[in-house]
Amino acid sequence: MINLKGHELTLEDMRAILYQKEEVKLEQSAIEAVQKSRKAVDRIVKEQSTVYGINTGFGKFSDVSIEEEDVHALQLHLIRSHACGLGQPFDEIVSRAMVVLRLNALLKGFSGIRLEVLERLAFMVNNDIHPVIPQQGSLGASGDLAPLSHLALVLIGEGFVWDGDQHVPSNVIWTKHKLTPIVLEAKEGLALINGTQAMTAQGVVNWLESETLAYQSEWIASMTIEALHGIIDAFHPAIHEARGYPEQVSVAKRVLHWLEGSKLVTKQGEKRVQDAYSLRCIPQIHGASWQVLAYVKEKLEIEMNAATDNPLIFEDGEVVISGGNFHGQPIAFSMDFLKIALAELANVSERRIERLVNPQLNEGLPPFLSPQPGLQSGAMIMQYAAASLVSENKTLSHPASVDSIPSSANQEDHVSMGTIGARHANQIIQNARRVLAIELICAMQGIEYRGKDLMAPSLSKKWHEIRAFIPSITKDRIFSVDIENLNKYLKSETARKIG
């Protein structure tokens, strides 16, 4: 059980909630803060004070006053009109993350929402009720309005939820659980949709997958080192300590651990003086990607616990301030940075693939690792596929955050495009994992030619585990099946902490 407080939620908590279906519980101190905040909203409505989002219109309509009898209709119109999401839905796990993150933000007690709405969000998490939320349509300021509106639709008995691979109307689910939809009161529609939880939810899933992939890239690269009789001296601790980046030092240490006991690696001067950069500079290249992961982790964990709606209510309602915490710039930058880091892991992996299959570079392995060079193509086209994915990643790495298109009659004249950045980061991660899967297939085949009995014990264990479902290349076959099976295996490891 994870206690949600509105603060202190971590990425490891999110791993447990998302992948291990850990349930959530509302912390008592947060409940009290929520109730105080709601009393303030009720007082504002009763006193007919003019406060943005409670009894005014939204965006450019912020100067339009709303009569007390229309306050409820205002929230319903808001959700329906803003539910303009387009395209394919976010993965169900991202939808689950979105519900958790919006709930955690509202528990801070700055939003004026009723406790019963938050209890319903918690019920959704604990009963696997996940909204179907289209991926496209958010500018990332004022928050993720369109995606979060589709989340809010489910609360009011509209919209759709996931049921396996199917989408079913939300009112069917509420009837199944003997519950009625929520009727939104003053400010609650705005509180639900004015935030950065779409980009942050996708960002959380991105980071968890990226961390797993970064660790996997190290043992996969270590197999390639064995297959190419790589020079182990380049990983000596003194080299990396001399530069001083802790991430670089850690990568070198982990690679040495994976290669401990290997009879396939060489020392400098035995076969050649030094390796190509894609082998020799693994700690420097991969270590730099780890630096990015550390930066992104810091920003995500701040945003996961942030009040990102508008207006915010302070001092028991005596102070209600309109601001701009919904602006997604910090996450937009983080996702753009993450894109580069993961694209580079794939980039250098593809270069190692080329060395494994190229007869001029692979230290005597068969051309393209073919069992019958010429008659059978072996891994030739796997390298093509990896090159294609790497090239696609370079296009996707263009920063989304450098773009901005004004909206709401120029009231919202600078937006973050953070959700686009998060979505593109996810695409890069999926591409990078497949590139690493190709490297692993090629490295395992190379090691088979060298002598699998000479492997490092820790890598030998991995080799045998994967050979159970990825057979040796004894003849040409449809390799896309192997790549996808290995991709699924690698992705599945995100469910547990492996570092």
From TrEMBL:
Enzymatic class: lyase
Pfam families, per database record: Lyase_aromatic
Free-text description of this protein's post-translational modifications in UniProt: Contains an active site 4-methylidene-imidazol-5-one (MIO), which is formed autocatalytically by cyclization and dehydration of residues Ala-Ser-Gly.
Recorded superkingdom: Bacteria
Cross-link (5-imidazolinone (Ala-Gly)): A141-G143
EC number: 4.3.1.3
Keywords, in A-Z order: Cytoplasm, Histidine metabolism, Lyase
Residues found modified as 2,3-didehydroalanine (Ser): S142
Pathway: Amino-acid degradation; L-histidine degradation into L-glutamate; N-formimidoyl-L-glutamate from L-histidine: step 1/3
Recorded catalytic activity of this chain's protein: L-histidine = trans-urocanate + NH4(+)
Cellular localisation: Cytoplasm
Predominant location category: cytoplasm
InterPro entries cross-referenced by the UniProt entry: Aromatic_Lyase, Fumarase/histidase_N, HutH, L-Aspartase-like, Phe/His_NH3-lyase_AS
Record carries keyword Translocase: no
Family: Belongs to the PAL/histidase family.
NCBIfam families (alphabetical): hutH, PRK09367.1
Protein name in the entry: Histidine ammonia-lyase
Organism in which the protein naturally occurs: Psychrobacillus mangrovi
